[in-house]
């Protein structure tokens, strides 16, 4: 099954412990890169999150974001940092000793001091399982979205493959006729310019020139690469990097055909081939 690397999934969950939203975003990348953003108090879940994602996805840049809001029933009593309060009181007393009319410090003012009151950290072991269960559902949705998009990309690439095969067939049909016409034209022109050249030498030069202009080998390799591109879509493993390599090779062969061309029709077909190959390359950049 062909998968795209571009997708988005969002999965919400509610319970007595919290209201949760997982957001997963996937974009194309040469390898697998996982970015995890969790609330500081839930950092202990980063390892299991990475493992779950790595088991389902093999290539792409994956952003995993957890939006977590503890429910009222799960909110525990605030934690007072009494040691910090004692230090603050001692500091106030030292300052008051220097003042003529010191103002009393109230408990409310002390409680407002940063760090004096902190919410109790959630029990990661208790809520980890339901949070990861919601993540699994989000991952399933992301994988399914990647597969749907991959199916669309496959259709586009296969259409371009069929068009490229048609161009190759036209080139192959026309090459003998083109080569014959080219040889006759060159023979006539060379005879006009070098009437004193030995006929055997002239024939030899024409044969060498014809070989340099022959594109049969490039056409053979292009057909082999096209067949391999089509066969790769039946693989279960990721095929994106292999497809990209094949299209680079196809582009090189098309460039060679264009550079050898001295005939308008050959040039036109070579240019159309290059366009089709580039269109396919744009699509496979997103295939896992």
What tags apply to this protein structure?
single chain; alpha+beta; 4-stranded mixed beta sheet; two-stranded antiparallel sheet; 61% helix
Task: Please tell me about this protein's structure.
The protein is α+β, with helices and mostly antiparallel strands. The chain folds into 3 domains: 7-75 and 125-147, Ribosomal Protein S5, domain 2; 79-118, no CATH class; 149-284, Up-down Bundle (Butyryl-CoA Dehydrogenase, subunit A, domain 3). The chain has 8 helices and 6 strands, in the order E-E-E-H-E-E-H-H-E-H-H-H-H-H. The protein has helices at 46-56, 82-96, 107-112, 124-193, 199-213, 216-232, 240-260, 264-284, and strands at 7-14, 18-27, 32-37, 60-70, 79-80, 117-118. Strand 3 (32-37), helix 1 and strand 4 form a beta-alpha-beta unit. Helix 1 packs across helix 4 (124-193), helix 4 packs antiparallel against helix 5 (199-213) and helix 4 runs antiparallel to helix 8 (264-284). The protein is elongated.
Brief overview, please?
The chain is of the alpha+beta class and 288 residues long. The protein is 61% helix and 14% strand.
């Amino acid at each position: 099954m062909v998968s795209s690397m571009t997708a988005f999934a969002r999965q919400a969950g509610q319970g007595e412990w919290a209201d949760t939203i997982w957001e997963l975003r996937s974009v194309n990348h040469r390898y697998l890169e996982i970015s995890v953003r969790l609330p500081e108090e839930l950092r202990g879940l980063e390892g299991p999150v990475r493992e779950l994602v790595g088991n389902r996805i093999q290539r792409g840049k994956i952003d995993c974001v957890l939006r977590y809001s503890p429910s009222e029933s799960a909110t525990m009593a605030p934690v007072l940092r009494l040691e910090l309060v004692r230090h603050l009181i001692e500091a106030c007393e030292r300052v008051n000793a220097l003042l003529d009319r010191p103002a009393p410090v109230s408990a409310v003012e002390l409680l407002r001091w940063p760090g004096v009151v902190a919410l109790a950290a959630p029990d990661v072991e208790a809520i980890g399982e339901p949070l990861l269960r919601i993540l699994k559902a989000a991952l399933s949705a992301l994988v399914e979205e990647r597969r749907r998009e991959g199916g669309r990309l496959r259709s586009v690439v296969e259409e371009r493959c069929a068009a490229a095969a048609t161009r190759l067939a036209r080139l192959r049909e026309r090459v003998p006729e083109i080569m014959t016409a080219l040889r006759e034209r060159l023979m006539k022109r060379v005879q006009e310019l070098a009437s004193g050249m030995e006929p055997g030498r002239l024939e030899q030069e024409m044969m060498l020139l014809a070989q340099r202009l022959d594109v049969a080998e490039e056409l053979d390799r292009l057909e082999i690469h096209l067949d391999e591109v089509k066969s790769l879509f039946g693989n279960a493993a990721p095929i994106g990097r292999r497809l990209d390599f094949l299209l680079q090779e196809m582009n090189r062969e098309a460039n060679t055909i264009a550079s050898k061309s001295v005939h308008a029709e050959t040039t036109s077909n070579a240019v159309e081939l290059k366009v089709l190959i580039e269109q396919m390359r744009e699509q496979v950049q997103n295939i896992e």
